[in-house]
Amino acid sequence: MITPRIKKETERLSTDPIVGIYATPDETNFRHFHVQISGPADTPYNGGLFKAELFLPDEYPMVPPKVLFRTKIFHPNIDKLGRICLDILKKNWSPALQIRAVLVSIQSLLSDANLDDPLDEEVAELFKTDPEAAEEKARQWTLDYANE
Amino acid sequence: MESHGDSVEEECEGWDDEEYEDPALENTPSENTLAKIKDYRIYTSEEIMEKQGKIIQNVREILGVDEDDAITALKHFSWSVEQLEEKWFSDEDKTKYQCGLVPDDSKCPPPNKKYADLCQICFLPLKKDKINSLKCGHIFCRQCWTDFFDTKLLEGYHCVMSKCPQYGCPLTVTHSIWKQILTGKHLQRYLKFHCKSYTDETKNINWCPKPGCNFCVENVSYVVSEVECNCGHFFCFKCGEDSHRPCSCELAKKWMMKNKSESENITWMIANTKNCPKCQRPIEKNQGCNHMTCNMCKHEFCWMCMGSWTEHGNATGGYYKCNKYEEMKSSKNDLTKLEEERDRAKHELKKYMFFFERYSNHVKAGDHANEMKPKIEILIEKLNTEKSYPIAELHFLKEGLDEVIRCRKVLKWTYAYGFYLNDDKEKALFENAQEMLEKNADRLHEYLEQDFEPFLCEEELDKKPFYQYKSNLVNCYKVTKQFYTNLLDGLERGLTNNII
């Protein structure tokens, strides 16, 4: 049974969408969202469209949604399996936060990587030591994988 | 060492007197060990909560705050009143903020009026039962508070530090809201965590680790590591494991790891197996003949020289007399090394087996002694009802058995201790102390395992044999106790302080 909260959140996502983010519920499972995030301007991800899946566990909103990137992305806080390191998806989750806030945070993570708390050490290391090379690689990956 | 035994026996003279009073074994000359052991206090969970309540009350008075604020602040400072006081009086506003006692409108403003009648979690209109007890004004319905707490309770006792459910709100959820919202089992769970936040953060208070036991122990002086809970469980205050005197926590852990680990299997493999020279699978030689055939690859070789069997024959001194061994050994350095390693491993394993055997022997003997407890109870009952010995005169049986159990426990650990002890002159002292205790504990154990039927026999009217038996046992008890003390005191004062 769909909860009033999930219903409202879903409605609002379609009536009042977030710029650069498309989130549509799965046809068979209202807890499952197919997400597309467009790479923010002035970042190496610009021009790419990144697919992600968002899932609301039964305990939502007492526990955070689970979000996974489906498109390969060269980013220090997102690993090869698409897992995301983001505080509000873990210890800083608050039940008063919503799907919107999560998606907006992920979008801004693309513009503002957190190099101090990397998920992929190697990627973070490259961003620290040779930002130009790292950005070039991120741009290339965006072209190769996020350019449908 | 012997002199102790003698002096004790002297004291015990005349114990076979039928008229003598209750032996009151616990009044044997009090040793340091016993004096040390009493340096802790045991509380029930109610008593510890009372103690906690007093601290809260004390802080309320010092800081002039209400109960909720006192509790929140204490939790923030891990229940250290001194630290809380120091910070509070040096910068009250900052400390209040750090503890989560004041809202922060700049970071997290109260909800705007448009949504003020909706619960910020479930989005349903708030009814009369809306709860707004935190000072920040973030409103959530009762159901959402309940769900929020239920989820937090799964996180363990740190949940008592939970912040307001609003994102970014620095306010700590107050004790009274927890109590207001939760009911039944969940409330009990919270109250337990509330208490645990105090006991777990306080270094000299630990709960008895025995499952289901609700006592906790306050170690007053830190001198003692072994404590006996009111439930009868002996445990080490420092590591929470079963008591392991005279070994240190580290040594005991090392020994247990050694017993558990597979490493001994590996040592055994090295000592008793060789690898097939062709397929490298380990092979145990279980028959006398040196002609080996690998089960897996069917390779035939000689166990002695590891050479192919096809090279064996009359030319090499006969099938069962491999003289190629020495030759191989000297010509191939690798093989010599392997042999050395095998020898070393064999020796190491032998040493371990020696100590482990004796260790587990005392474990088993201790188990037997524990199993005897109900039998001894029945015996005391029978001696009292059927032969009308006063109960007070029969305590010695129970106390003797308790002493055996105590000794077995220490004795088993002396073997772990001995295993890691370096070979030097202090080792001899230790081994002597160990031997004396072992001998006497065995004797005491034997006394308690003897056949009691003759004393219970109906025709037997003479009580003398029983009092003779009692006198023997009590003497043995005293001597054993003395050696027990000698050993522990000796070791714990660092007499043999030469562990690898």
Automatic annotation (TrEMBL), chain A:
Pfam families named in the record: UQ_con
Alphabetized UniProt keyword annotations: ATP-binding, Nucleotide-binding, Transferase, Ubl conjugation pathway
Highest taxon listed in the record's lineage: Eukaryota
InterPro entries (UniProt xref): Ub_conjugating_enzyme, UBC, UBQ-conjugating_AS, UBQ-conjugating_enzyme/RWD
SMART domains in the cross-refs: UBCc
Entry's Gene Ontology molecular function annotations: ATP binding; transferase activity
Residue ranges constituting the UBC core domain according to the UniProt record: 1-147
SUPFAM superfamilies: UBC-like (SSF54495)
Active site positions, chain numbering: 85 (glycyl thioester intermediate)
Family of the protein in this entry: Belongs to the ubiquitin-conjugating enzyme family.
Descriptive protein name: UBC core domain-containing protein
Native organism: Euplotes crassus
Organismal lineage: Eukaryota, Sar, Alveolata, Ciliophora, Intramacronucleata
From TrEMBL, chain B:
Region (Disordered): 1-29
Any one of the GO BP annotations: protein ubiquitination
InterPro entries the UniProt entry points to: Ariadne (IPR045840), ARIH1-like_UBL (IPR048962), E3_UB_ligase_RBR (IPR031127), IBR_dom (IPR002867), TRIAD_supradom (IPR044066), Znf_RING (IPR001841), Znf_RING/FYVE/PHD (IPR013083), Znf_RING_CS (IPR017907)
Lineage of producing organism: Eukaryota, Sar, Alveolata, Ciliophora, Intramacronucleata
Name assigned to this protein: RBR-type E3 ubiquitin transferase
Biased composition (Acidic residues): 8-24
Domain RING-type: from-to ranges: 115-326, 119-165
Domain of life: Eukaryota
SMART domains named in the record: IBR
Keyword Ribonucleoprotein: no
Membrane-spanning residues: none
Electron transport keyword on record: no
Catalytic activity: [E2 ubiquitin-conjugating enzyme]-S-ubiquitinyl-L-cysteine + [acceptor protein]-L-lysine = [E2 ubiquitin-conjugating enzyme]-L-cysteine + [acceptor protein]-N(6)-ubiquitinyl-L-lysine
MF annotations from Gene Ontology: ubiquitin protein ligase activity; zinc ion binding
Keywords: Metal-binding, Repeat, Transferase, Ubl conjugation pathway, Zinc, Zinc-finger
Xref: SUPFAM superfamilies: RING/U-box
EC numbers for this chain: 2.3.2.31
Source organism per UniProt: Euplotes crassus
